[in-house]
Amino acid sequence: MAKSTRNFPCNQCGECCKHVHMLAETASLDRGDGICRHFDVDLKSCRIYLQRPDICRVDRQYDLHYQSAMTWEAFVELNQIACKTLQAS
Ligand code: SF4
Ligand code: SF4
After folding, report:
1. Which atom of ligand 2 sits closest to the CA of residue 26?
2. Over the stretch 16-71, which tens digit does the pLDDT of each residue have?
3. C-beta of 58 in contact with ligand 2 (< 6 A)
């Protein structure tokens, strides 16, 4: 599947960017309270969106680590479960 056809259904809640301390791969982004140093809390948006690291790119993570293990749709479903868990916390 071409990368351009992949779109993760993010509702832009910002919860993943507010819990970067929970993942070893994003812990270095923590500004000290679990929130990413690049996250604009008021606008609920990433200040470096176009340059954000690969770990913040769902499609890139799929390409790098998961495409041989599962379909894009299954990967989206797993990520959405993580999103819902964060949103409920
Ligand atoms: S937690 Fe999920 S839905 Fe919310 S901003 Fe992050 S990726 Fe998008
Ligand atoms: S770099 Fe951007 S997308 Fe990644 S966690 Fe920080 S604010 Fe979120």
Report:
1. 5
2. 999 999 999 999 999 999 999 999 999 999 999 999 999 999 999 999 999 999 99
3. no
Rounded CA separation 35/71 (Å): 30
Question: CB under 8 Å to 62, separation ≥6 — which residues?
Answer: 6, 72, 75
Q: Contacts from 41-45 at CB under 8 Å and sequence distance 24+?
A: 41/14, 44/12, 44/13, 44/14, 45/12, 45/14
Can you give the pTM of this predicted structure? 0.91
